[in-house]
Amino acid sequence: xxxxxxxxxxxxxxxxxxxxxxxxxxxxxxxxxxxxxxxxxxxxxxxxxxxxxxxxxxxxxxxxxxxxxxxxxxxxxxxxxxxxxxxxxxxxxxxxxxxxxxxx
Length: 104
Fold this sequence. Notes:
- It is built from 5 helices and no strands.
- By secondary structure, it is mainly α.
- Helix 4 (73-84) packs across helix 5.
- The chain has helices at 15-21, 45-50, 52-71, 73-84, 88-101.
- The protein is extended.
- It has one domain (15-101).
- The model has no long low-confidence stretch (mean pLDDT 87).
């Protein structure tokens, strides 16, 4: 966008906050129109059937990780700020968006 090759772009958290800070306007906010997953787990039906215990363990681990992140907000904000190299307000918004987007 800055180089003028495109007039708009679909970006995800936290890149959208950086663009807004640079003066770009948000045209739309995806969650206002559609609920979509931020990530997923995929595999063939055969793999899932033949590795049931492993698949269940993976799902339990992911659910536990999401639960842990939601319970440790005060630790996650500084982590996101440093890891994403963003200002604190963008780390907070990124955390809130991600925590809200994940069921559990």
